[in-house]
């Protein structure tokens, strides 16, 4: 009888020890600062584990939420003035469509197999692009080293508007920390 209890105790201790070893490993998965980031632009169609809203670190959740809430896509003052001077919805649609055609030229070298135009912070420095449009994705520097941020431009035929999509992925796996679509703000208060 004593031997049976001894075996059960050993098994119980082994199970508890395994949990204490596995938990810290899982907790540091997205906090490993020794990883090198290699920027890629063609991983949008891979299946990911979606961890949005799950139990990730508080600081990471806060940074991801800031990206989700405060990302923006706006006209520059010049483009806003040109757009607002147009007096018909048809001309405004044509203006947006012409901007989309310019984006397809400015970012042609980063077009993927799904006809999306990937971009990196460096490529947004294109002077022609900056003449018309502003893209803001907060906390990009926070994710460098531990995460990949994939971004691309696309055009939505239903809304007749340009948007960019972003996805924040952990380097230690295929976990998707957050993602979203940000449409060009066409309101009068741009």
Summarize the SSE layout with pairings.
Blueprint: H1 2-27, E1 49-50, H2 58-70, E2 72-75, H3 77-85, H4 89-106, E3 117-118, H5 127-132, E4 133-136, H6 140-143, E5 147-156, E6 161-170, E7 175-183
Parallel strand pairs: 1-7
Antiparallel strand pairs: 2-4, 3-5, 5-6, 6-7
Shape: elongated
Which secondary-structure class do the elements indicate? alpha+beta
In the predicted model, the low-confidence regions spanning at least 5 consecutive residues are 18-47
How many helices? The count is 6
User: How many β-strand runs?
Assistant: 7
Straight-line N-to-C gap: 78 Å
Spatial strand arrangement across the major sheet? 1-7-6-5-3
Strand content: 15-25%
What's the average pLDDT?
76
- Succession of helices and strands: HEHEHHEHEHEEE
- What is the count of distinct domains? 1
Largest sheet features = 5 strands, mixed
Please bin the fraction of helical residues. 40-55%
Q: Using only CA atoms, what is the Rg?
A: 23 Å
Protein name: Lipoprotein
Signal peptide: 1-28
Keywords: Signal
Organism: [Mycoplasma] phocae
Commentary on this structure:
- The protein has six helices and seven strands; from the N terminus they run H-E-H-E-H-H-E-H-E-H-E-E-E.
- It has one domain (56-190).
- The chain is α+β, with helices and mostly antiparallel strands and 190 residues long.
- The protein has a five-stranded mixed beta sheet. A two-stranded antiparallel ribbon has the order 2-4.
